Amino acid sequence: MSPQVVTPAIDFQVWLPSKVQQVEAMLDHVLPAADAVPGRLHDAMRYAVLGGGKRVRAALVYAAGEASLQSAAAASSQQIALDHAAVAVELVHAYSLVHDDLPCMDDDTLRRGRPTVHVQFDEATAMLAGDALQPLAFESLGLMPIAPALVVQAIQLLARAIGSQGMVGGQAIDCESVGRTLEQDALQQMHRMKTGALLEASVLLGGIVAGASSIVREGLEKYAAAIGLAFQVADDILDVTADTATLGKTAGKDAMENKPTYVSTLGLDGARELLHELRDDARAALLPLGPSAAQLANIADFIVMRDR
Amino acid sequence: MSPQVVTPAIDFQVWLPSKVQQVEAMLDHVLPAADAVPGRLHDAMRYAVLGGGKRVRAALVYAAGEASLQSAAAASSQQIALDHAAVAVELVHAYSLVHDDLPCMDDDTLRRGRPTVHVQFDEATAMLAGDALQPLAFESLGLMPIAPALVVQAIQLLARAIGSQGMVGGQAIDCESVGRTLEQDALQQMHRMKTGALLEASVLLGGIVAGASSIVREGLEKYAAAIGLAFQVADDILDVTADTATLGKTAGKDAMENKPTYVSTLGLDGARELLHELRDDARAALLPLGPSAAQLANIADFIVMRDR
Q1: A4 in a domain, yes or no?
Q2: Does the ipTM surpass 0.95?
Q3: Which of A79, A201, A288, B233 gives the lowest tally of CB atoms within 10 Å of its CB?
Q4: Interval B54-102: pLDDT, tens
Q5: Is the pLDDT reported for residue B1 higher than 60?
Q6: B115: β partners
Q7: Looking at the partner chain, which of B99, B125, B164 has a beta carbon nearest the beta carbon of A172?
């Protein structure tokens, strides 16, 4: 065996923007040009995907990849595969926002500080842009230059995470529960599906690409479950504590629409307490992974501390 | 080499219903039960997929599989893979109909003789049902028990066929062209994407699963291009010659909305002439494949003669 060289962890304040830049360059490359036919559709797809965003899901792919690599230096094929996986989860996330913002769903007009896609274009174009981003995500995974069996595993994982028993199912439960009070268990189940499933898939995709051992995968799964929930709890807190300008989307909307949230169920202090417990759970799950999981730990902190 | 036994072609009138039954049993099995959470979403997905339909795309998968097999008897793993591929294309087709029927698109209230999904349920549920059928299609392909490299190839093929430069792109061009006159070239390009891309993918998926040789694939591609267009020409003719009860969807809608069609561009006689030319092209493309392509030839006839 070659000696394992542990590279010093790069400062998160440097690491995160570099990964954001990396996935955005790839997204720009993967999305068809706005002058390719049909232009209006491609324009809308680019508007939806390239309009900013925290890129937390892409960061999770890269960080989980770093944490799972068998040797300190990833093979270049693994690096390329991580890029494709990061692109895939960001494409799916963008599509889900476009559809969630439509009038028949949340009817939102503001996203990332700009008009939502159906406001900027039109409803039909927004729906079709979302519909076309989804297969582009699977195509991106299909391009990963790693063992085909791992590619298939990655595609299965993403497909399940975003289907009727994952992301879209959570959205459906959310729609059905407007104006009703959900028990904390039901609320948790809804969020695990709606937001948690894709966040968890992002972490596990990084692990699959990097050939994570079963011990590492177990740690990643526990970590992913904790940060998946933490993300939603933080979102619910921000909905009541932040203003619209900072959020880049309409603040106070959940309360206005009488949507069940962690804050409405636990109160603001209770929600904050839960958030910190989840961060501790996430960090504890990473212990068996050692220092290579440093950026995953930093992302857990980032999710808890974020102000938008 | 073992001697090649050519089984006599089964009568198409027996073959087609047996394949329809086969894929419908698989679809029923693959779709989550209506009592699985979220029930309303699963109910809508089942309503969208299991409500009849000609199952032409599934039939193309099976027929292309039969035509491409290296020996007369397919391995059972190939048979199972063809089932999964047939399920995938029918799920995609069903999702595309649900979204096309939405008020922001074609605003149709009748499909296969029943209320459309958003009429039977609601708009949000219809959109989410379509959104969830799409990943289920990719999951189904991912389950094919054949070489993983072929699975990845199949997934890439489907993803490209239904993206912004395939099915969804064609739909976007169709939306943009309402009330305008398209040149025949532009009309053909739109239909190649909107309807042809998934029909062609169905044929090629059957070939991939069955390990088609390059000569066979070439024949399949030419066949697929011809029947892809033929299908749309037949649709346009039926829109003006059939009544709503026979079609199971609103007849005369294209003309009413001033949509460009083959009939509006070529006239009824010109469209019928083109349809028969395309059938001849399709049959000619099958010649190198020999008698195993009998059902593909029959499907070409079926597309030309259908009355709904």
Answers
A1: no
A2: no
A3: A288
A4: 999 999 999 999 999 876 566 789 999 999 999 999 999 999 999 999 9
A5: no
A6: B110
A7: B125
Q: What percentage of chain A carries pLDDT values higher than 70?
A: 90
**Is the separation of the CB atoms in A197 and A57 below 8 Å?**
no
With 80 as the cut, is the pLDDT of residue A171 above it? yes
Does residue A278 fall inside a structural domain? yes
- What residues pair up with B110 in beta bridges, in sequence order? B115
Q: How many CB pairs under 8 A join A and B?
A: 152
Interface test with B, best of A45, A47, A128 (most B CBs within 10 A): A128
Output the six-digit token pair for A274: 């839960």
Q: Would the CB atoms of B148 and A143 count as touching at under 8 Å?
A: no
Provide the domain count of chain B: 1
* Chain A nearest CA to B180, separation (Å): 16
* CB–CB contact B124 A104 (8 Å): yes
For residues B205 and B158, the answer to whether their CB atoms sit within 8 Å is yes
Q: Kindly identify which residue of chain A lies nearest to residue B118, measuring between CA atoms.
A: A104
Flag whether pLDDT at B260 surpasses 50: yes
Residue A46 lies in a domain: yes
Task: Show Cβ contacts of residue B184 under 8 Å, excluding neighbours closer than 6 positions.
Answer: B265, B266
Task: Print the domain residue range for A196.
Answer: 12-305
Distance from CA of A164 to the nearest CA of B (A): 5
pLDDT category, A245, cuts 50, 70, 90? low
From A118, which residue of chain B is nearest by alpha-carbon distance?
B104
The answer to whether B138 and A155 are in contact (CB under 8 A) is yes
Identify the CATH number of the domain in which residue A18 sits.
1.10.600.10
Please answer yes or no on whether B152 and A156 come within 8 Å at the CB atom. no
Q: Report yes or no on B248 lying in a domain.
A: yes
Burial class of B13 by CB neighbour count within 10 A (0 to 12, 13 to 18, 19+) = exposed
B296 contacts: CB under 8 Å, gap ≥ 6: B60, B63, B64, B67, B203, B223, B282, B286, B289
